[in-house]
Amino acid sequence: MIYLYAVTILLVALSLMKDRGRTLRALRIGGKRFLKVAPAFLSMLVLVAVILGLIPDELMMKILARDSKWIASASAIVLGSVAVMPGFVVFPLCGILLGNGALYMVLSAFSTTLMMVGVATFPLEKVYLGTRLALVRNLAGLIIAVAVAAATGLFFGELL
Amino acid sequence: MNRKELVFPATLLVLFGLFVLGSGLAGFAPGQQMGRDFAGFFMKMLSVLPCVFILIGLFEVWVKRETIEKHLGCGAGPLSYLWAVLLAGTNVGGLHVALPVGHALYVKGARTGVVLAYLFAATICRIPMALFEATFLGWRFTAVRFAVSLPLVVCFAALIGHHFDRRGYRLPETGGDES
Fold first, then answer.
1. Annotated domain spans of chain A
2. In terms of CA atoms, which chain B residue is nearest residue A48?
3. CB distance A26–B129 less than 8 Å?
4. CA torsion B165→B169→B174→B178, rounded to 10°?
5. Is B160 in Cβ contact with A127 (below 8 Å)?
6. Per-residue pLDDT tens for B29-84?
7. Which residues of A touch B95 (CB under 8 A)?
């Protein structure tokens, strides 16, 4: 995080030294684009907060640590696609689930869909990619996540 | 953004605000938690996004269109996917940060497939995140995920990008596009 600030300040300073007018134009472009997508960002935050509130941790644990690996994997995919979580929450949670006996395959399906497929990020994605491409990207993400989960299952000897 | 596009976010925000307010008054704990989560995420966004958009602005005025077109555009070879994945490895947030950056690349002449590869890779192959993941789930788990997902990411991105480019699909504009 500090690096991001340092790099930004450094580059703005360099840019100012080189060309004042251009730098101001850069800031204006950045600001304009930010304002344009701000409503979509806010919608995303509301959806994330609501979805996260609707799926409590205990429920998640219960679902993902199911005995049947097929049901657990399928629920992991659904749960991962609907829920949104920051990375620093996902992996510690997965670590706990692993300790509770969840399969690697299930955790892989869960974490990969969490990151690649997003119902809550869709309003934002739509603004940048357009509805069609956003839909196709999420679908492709889902397929990749299933493939990754299956490969993880094979590798750790859980699938067969 | 025109009026019509504002209806959904505005309605959502007002309803959510009323719900959280009501939860606060009625002592409904899950509702209060949602409000707190929202505030937390909001602050986090506020700490990252201004930097990201300033960098995008600088990118827009300083980087030459020809440079991006040459390395990431329609004429560029398969190496362009490698650049996209490497660039994605440095991404600081999730998809929400990668989207504006990917869009900025597109505006400067990157082709759709390369932008998609960047977006995919930014969600699953971020270096700091991978280190974190390996700590909790073991490096073998992370290695399998990278080994399987990266080739698939590039294949899917290339296929989808090719298809959309050929049909003349254009990404929407998001304001301030000068080149």
1. 2-155
2. B38
3. no
4. 60
5. no
6. 889 988 998 998 898 888 889 999 999 999 989 998 888 888 898 888 889 999 99
7. 115, 118, 121, 124-125
Whether residue B178 is predicted with pLDDT greater than 60 in this model: the reply is no
Conformation bin of residue B64: beta by default, left when phi > 0, alpha when psi is -120 to 50: beta
**How far apart are the C-alpha atoms of A7 and A11, rounded to whole Å?**
6
Q: For B117-128, how does the pLDDT look when each residue is reduced to its tens digit (9 = 90+)?
A: 999 999 888 887
Cβ contact, residue pair B12, A26, below 8 Å: no
Non-local (6+) Cβ contacts of B140 within 8 A are: A155, A156
State how far the Cα of A42 lies from the Cα of A50, in Å rounded to an integer. 12
Q: Hey, are the CB atoms on B10 and A39 less than 8 Å from each other?
A: yes
Rounded CA-CA distance B122/B126 in Å is 6
In chain A, residues with a C-beta closer than 8 Å to the C-beta of B179 are none
CA B76/CA B116 separation, integer angstroms:
15
CA distance B132 to B142: 10
CA dihedral B57→B59→B60→B61, nearest 10 degrees, is 90
> B152 to chain A, minimum CA–CA distance in Å?
7
Our CA dihedral for A81, A84, A90, A96, rounded to 10 degrees, sits at -70
Nearest CA in chain A to B121: A116
**pLDDT value at B165 more than 60:** yes
Smallest CA–CA distance from A123 into chain B, residue: B9
* The dihedral sign for the CA sequence A62, A65, A67, A71: positive
Do A77 and A146 touch, CB atoms closer than 8 A? yes
Min Cα–Cα distance to chain B from A78, Å: 18
Q: Of B166, B91, B116, B159, give the one whose Cα is nearest residue A130.
A: B116
Query: For chain A, what is the mean pLDDT?
Result: 89
Residues ≥6 apart with Cβ < 8 Å to B89? B121, B125, B126, B127
